[in-house]
Amino acid sequence: MAYATNSDLTQTVSTIMNHGVTDWTTQLTEAESDVNRWLEVNWYNKTFNQGFDQIGRALGSQMDATLLTDTQWTKATVYRALYAHILPTLSPFAVGGDTFREMIDFYRERFHEEMSLEMAKGVEYDADNDGTITRSEKHQHRQDRIYR
Questions:
Q1: Minimal CA–CA distance to 2: which of 70, 72, 67?
Q2: Degrees, nearest 5: CA angle 34-111-46
Q3: Average pLDDT of the chain?
Q4: Distance from C-alpha of 96 to C-alpha of 82, rounded to nearest angstrom
Q5: Does the pLDDT value for residue 132 go beyond 80?
Q6: pTM (predicted TM-score)
Q7: pLDDT tens for each residue of 90-102
Q8: Sign of the four-CA dihedral 35, 40, 44, 47
Q9: What pLDDT was estimated at residue 141?
Q10: 6-45 pLDDT, tens per residue?
Q11: How far apart are CA 4 and CA 23, in angstroms?
Q12: 74 in Cβ contact with 6 (< 8 Å)
């Protein structure tokens, strides 16, 4: 199942289908891939799976995005799709700015805010692949000290 659909997109920006495009599925799929990559780099490799060899290659298993809870990443996927894939195609990038460029900045901030909140809340990752998320499979990301 996809993290976000056209319906989720129109709930966030009700006028997004009024610009000559009625299906943003490709852009939402690209944004889902971006969210998965962000999670793999910023959560899975750093917090969940910490085994690395001397040259920095992961020793453990690869992240399996199908084990994530899809609904946890809906907002982040919509925000990423808007600022990185949809709004840039609609913007004329006029000198002095335009509405779409303002929206790009707004949704970029919402994306980073949403990812931070979900990380603090806890990433739901069904590591044993049994179809249920137990308390031990909800991984909160905290940084209590500075790493150098």
A1: 70
A2: 60
A3: 88
A4: 21
A5: yes
A6: 0.87
A7: 999 988 889 999 9
A8: negative
A9: 65
A10: 999 999 999 999 999 999 999 999 999 999 999 998 888 7
A11: 12
A12: no
- Residue 92 sits at the vertex; the CA angle it makes with 90 and 95, to the nearest 5 degrees, is 145
Domain spans in the chain, listed from the N-terminal domain onward:
1-12+25-44+64-148
Half-sphere exposure of 57 (CA within 13 A, CB side): 2
Three-state secondary structure along the chain?
Answer: CCCCCHHHHHHHCCCHHHHCCCCCHHHHHHHHHHHHHHHHHHHHHHHHCCCECCCCCECCCCCCHHHECHHHHHHHHHHHHHHHHHHHHHCCCCCCCCHHHHHHHHHHHHHHHHHHHHHHHCEEECCCCCCCCCHHHEECCCCCCCCC
Whole-number Å distance between alpha carbons of 100 and 87: 6
